[in-house]
Prior knowledge:
2 copies of one chain form a homodimer. Chain A is built from 3 helices and 12 strands. Chain A has about 200 residues and is mainly beta. In chain A, the strands form 3 sheets. In chain A, strands 1-12-3-10-6-5 form a 6-stranded antiparallel β-sheet, with helices on one face. A 4-stranded antiparallel β-sheet of chain A has the order 2-11-4-7, covered by helices on one side. Chain A is globular and about 40 Å long. Chains A, B: This is Urea carboxylase-associated family protein.
Amino acid sequence: MNLVVLPARSGTRVSLNKGQALRIVNTHGGQVVDLWAYLLDGSQHMSMPHSVVTLGRIKPRVGDTLYTQLREPILKLEDDQSPGTHCMLFAACDRARYKLLGAQGHHHNCADNMREALGPTGIDPGYVPTPLNLFMNTHFHDHQDMEVVEPQAKVGDFVTFRALQDCIAVMSACPQDMVPVNAHGCTPQPVGYCVLD
Amino acid sequence: MNLVVLPARSGTRVSLNKGQALRIVNTHGGQVVDLWAYLLDGSQHMSMPHSVVTLGRIKPRVGDTLYTQLREPILKLEDDQSPGTHCMLFAACDRARYKLLGAQGHHHNCADNMREALGPTGIDPGYVPTPLNLFMNTHFHDHQDMEVVEPQAKVGDFVTFRALQDCIAVMSACPQDMVPVNAHGCTPQPVGYCVLD
Lengths: 197, 197
């Protein structure tokens, strides 16, 4: 299995034919990867709040289908060799987020990574949907503060998504180094991916 | 305090000047109200996933500020005389949702109510952001099934939001009568609201 490297702090896209699968590998462990998916014409995208309603849970299990904002199936979580803590609730980090955190000047961010990766396809996302934050280790407690701690994903842990429609997947190796979203002392790492038939 | 009635299954909008407050009263108890807010030029809207990140929790407490997709403050939950189970995670019910639930023909839905209420302002929402689902009684359990049960809000329970910017609030008295989102045997009820200086 030849993995393509997605460098730390960067984004990319990959086209998937219906029936193909995308495997995303935590090659260094402890790294969050933001995932989006769009139909080829840009008319629909994978939507976390719609998936939450249809799935009936806030963290996906193996076998779960993820849905678009029109509630059509788009990706299926076919395999999950990780602790499965993926987060469906967090907005992607963006310029405003890093400004609030006190970053000086430009800071790489998942929202810009997504826009740049999608740009050449001609799809104008308009807005940045909530990504599926792979490997992100969040726990929620209603009115109490939620916990966001280092991912437990180990070196080689991976997830595999089957495309249920022709689509474009967009990934961003999360550049977060100011709060402990990523491990290694909050140091972003590369990840790997491949397309499987 | 003169309340305006928002009839069951319908939506409306109200303009708020910065500093004014919107009180929403569960006049019959047990009724969910979807709430959105837009800046007057439509460039920003209240965003649940961005608010979740900035707040650090998935259910708002009194004193919490809600943010736009650009992470600017827009509304503050100033008072909450209800059990406070409001849900920040659920996509608004829409035509696709009712079709999946087996509704025959047209079914009133919060997404259409929002679009219709906002229409005359000239703001084109483009997409339907996740609303703040007021009084909605949801509980989340990571990989386990979440629970959606009847609201515990009693007759006369209310919430009050202070506008932190000039904005347009949109409300929909949730028309859900196929799953137990609303009480009274899943029968949608009217609610009331008023603007306070």
